[in-house]
Amino acid sequence: MNDAQRLRYSRHLLLDEWSEDLQQRLIDSHVLVVGAGGLGAPALMYLASAGVGRLTVIDPDEVDLTNLQRQIVHRTDGIGRPKVASAYDTLRALNPEVQVQPVHARADDALLAAWAPQADLLLDCTDRFETRHLLNRASVRHGKPLVLASAVRWDGQLAVFDPRVPDSPCYACLFPPDEAPPEVRCATMGVFAPAVGQVGVMQAGAALRQLAGLTPASALGRLVMVDGRTGETSAVRFKRQPGCAVCGSAH
Q1: Fewer CB near the last or first residue (10 Å), C or N of the chain?
Q2: THIF-type NAD/FAD binding fold domain: from which residue to which, for each copy (predicted)?
Q3: Is 29 domain-assigned?
């Protein structure tokens, strides 16, 4: 680290649990973020400001006026532009040291097969059940940690998965791919703006702890639920399923 980096990240370095080696680990890290909307916006900004050295951002959409109520990585003058391009400009202005790779496309198996092996961690910031399962399969297939979140109306959820840890469950253990719930999206159900911010920031925190090697074992197999009406959180535990279609013993 150079002197400018020591100053930029000095408030991390003042933490008893932190060190220059941990900060350098962030600088050397690559995070693949799928989704540059309500969750991706705050998550990306905190990953960039905290010093994650490389961010690949995948999103197929353009900035719309309705996004600006909550998607803080975008600005009014970005309406009509690809979200990944808008996010690129904001993140580079926030921290010019960060390498940002915008990918204006919808995530599919082929795209994730190309990008997931290069990343140290996957971040799911989407609102689609199908995409979550695509990312979960990529996580298990390539042995990459996955931090997954969702938010709609007043409520949010967060979970951390790490296929490198023996007996750790995957997303399909919790939500089997053949049991898709009714589609719930902000565009039709509405969303409280700070709810996505709160969950997106929690998602960034989980990602940074994972990259720094500070994730407690208790964080795995745990679904955190956020109530935007009260600001309270609760959690439920879940276990790896031997018959899981993705990570089960037969696969």
Answers
A1: C
A2: 9-245
A3: yes
User: Catalytic one among 125, 170, 173, 186?
Assistant: 186
Q: In the β-sheet with 30-34, what is the strand arrangement from edge to edge? A: 99-103, 54-58, 30-34, 121-124, 146-152, 155-161, 222-227, 232-237
Chain center to CA of 164 = 18
Q: Where are the alpha helices (DSSP H) in 79-213?
A: 83-94, 109-115, 129-142, 171-174, 186-189, 193-212
Domain harbouring 121, CATH code: 3.40.50.720
Residue 125 annotated as catalytic: no
Reading phi first (left if > 0) and then psi (alpha if -120 to 50, else beta), residue 213 is in left
pLDDT in tens, 38-72: 999 999 999 999 999 999 999 999 999 999 999 99
Are 213 and 145 a contacting pair, CB within 8 Å? Answer: no
